[in-house]
Specification:
494 residues; alpha+beta; 5-stranded mixed β-sheet; 12 helices; 23 strands; 30% helix; 27% strand; disordered N terminus
């Protein structure tokens, strides 16, 4: 390890575990560009289909407001800082391509319905006809300056037969579908691409952050039962609603953790850093759960005496803003006709804001739905980095899962653009005693700091690889968002 690594990076590196990694699988890197932080995670699936983390880094975000890149230069420097931390955790990691999350106020959605009359009703419906039906929806009128990001079919119908999940193989004169169309501002998409390119990287694909977070915390049973995923970020809160296995609604709520911090700063007359620290350490989303006789002492400014702030007052401010966010959720659920009688899976809370104490109870009180915190642990291999157990990294890990969906379904070409520079390079792991151990990928012997200790037994012969089960979540969505943007941009230039 580099001697210049700080203590946090050393701890991350010591906790990093490399198990039976599938050498045929590409290394996918997820880049989460958020309002408060930028995270970069490099991962690869092992033979059991679980993610092994090969590199992890994050840095404070600059140039991003409400999930939207405004200052490209500042964002580029923040991305570089996160990438340097990621490379520092594994110096042999070479990163060239990334999957990038996209969110922000500019993201909108609308519902449409379309159909086509078939030329030969005697033949069974073919996949190419369904693709034509979906592509026709890209001609839907949207405001100038916006761009269609994704067209998602919800359910199909053939003649008088309704609610068909896949009409291929049916016979009929007319085939149609209900669609969920997601749009975004063209300039916002362009700014993300420019910030990533100036960091020396290529954007493999742009992925909607609420969909990425959902893929990391949901299973097929959740989607079938009906569930709402609320990703509470720094600048916005992203909502994705699923019912009967179909994405029914997406929305961007224009409030997040930064708004809570801002309210605390103004309401209690403290600095932004103090407001953020109080929110994380002493904050509660329920006033009734805060102790009435508890106070926080903060130092005075420039010689002024210290101040005491009531924990009860702090909770009052947090509850007011979180209630506003949850009332937006209730409003959106009513708009699409999915209330507490239909969403049996309740609400899954994820993102940094989900770490607020007693938020689960407040959510259940305001919405009338069961609630739980969504962690991305299900897709991670055992003994993964401790920090990744946090819902903060749901989006970033979901981006890696999107990359593996593209790889397993052959929707994109992977040429080992992200790789470990030396095939025999040792992988960092923890020996359970707090000291660093390195495992040679070819021999399985320990090396490095503990090389004079008892050598590890030779690796056992590997068993034949069982075919992985593809990630079915992403099959429901279009896979070429970044390609569509480039195609439309080329047309504008022409």
């Amino acid at each position: 390890m580099n001697e210049n690594l700080n203590a946090q990076q050393r701890k991350i590196a010591e906790e990093m575990v490399q198990m039976s990694v599938d050498s045929d699988a590409p290394i996918i890197v997820g880049l989460d560009i958020g309002t408060t932080k930028i995270a970069a995670i490099a991962g690869r699936k092992n033979e059991q289909g679980k993610l092994e983390i090969l590199g992890f880094g994050h840095a404070p975000s600059n140039g991003v407001q409400h999930g939207q890149v405004l200052n490209i230069d500042q964002t580029m420097r923040a991305i570089n800082a996160a990438l340097e931390n990621c490379r520092a955790s594994n110096p042999d990691l070479d990163i060239n391509e990334v999957y990038v999350g996209i969110a922000g106020h500019h993201i909108k959605s609308l519902q449409t319905r379309g159909d086509i009359v078939r030329q030969n009703a005697e033949l069974e419906i073919q996949r190419v006809e369904i693709e034509q039906l979906i592509d026709n929806q890209r001609k839907t009128f949207i405001p100038a300056g916006d761009q269609i990001i994704d067209v998602i079919p919800q359910d199909f119908y053939v003649d008088n037969f309704q609610f068909i999940k896949d009409p291929v193989g049916y016979n009929g004169v007319k085939v149609g579908a209900n669609f969920h169309i997601i749009t975004g501002d063209r300039n916002a998409i362009r700014n993300i691409n420019r910030a990533v390119e100036r960091s020396g990287l290529k954007t493999k694909d742009l992925v909607l952050q609420p969909l990425a977070s959902s893929s990391a915390v949901l299973c097929d049973m959740d989607m079938e039962a009906g569930v709402a995923v609320l990703d509470i970020g720094g600048g916005t809160s992203d909502l994705a609603v699923f019912y009967e296995g179909v994405l029914k609604h997406t929305a961007v709520i224009p409030f997040g953790g930064e708004n809570i911090t801002h309210d605390i700063r103004l309401g209690l007359g403290v600095l932004k850093q103090q407001a953020e620290a109080m929110k994380k350490q002493f904050g509660s989303a329920l006033t009734d759960e805060a102790k009435a006789n508890a106070f926080i002492t903060i130092p005075g400014l420039r010689g002024l005496p210290p101040r005491e702030i009531s924990v009860k007052n702090l909770a009052n401010i947090i509850q007011a803003r979180m209630t506003e966010i949850l009332e937006f959720v209730t409003y959106h659920l009513k708009q699409v006709g999915l209330d507490n009688r239909k969403l049996n899976g309740g609400i899954i809370l994820t993102g940094g804001g989900a770490q607020l104490k007693h938020l689960k109870q407040l959510t259940e009180f305001v919405t009338g739905l069961n609630a739980r915190i969504g962690y991305p642990n299900e897709h991670l291999a055992p003994n993964h980095i401790e920090q990744l157990k946090s819902p903060i990294y749901s989006t970033c890990l979901g981006l890696i899962l999107k990359g593996y969906s593209d790889f397993e379904n052959h929707t994109k070409i992977f040429e080992k653009s992200n790789l470990v520079k030396h095939p025999t390079s040792p992988i960092l792991t923890s020996n359970g005693q707090g000291t660093q151990t390195q495992i040679d990928q070819q021999t399985g012997q320990t090396a490095g700091a503990n090389s004079d200790s008892t050598p590890a037994p030779a690796a056992k012969p590997s068993k034949p690889k069982a075919p992985r089960k593809p990630n079915m979540f992403w099959e429901k969505f279009k896979n070429n968002l970044i390609d569509l943007f480039k195609e439309e941009e080329d047309q504008v230039i022409k």
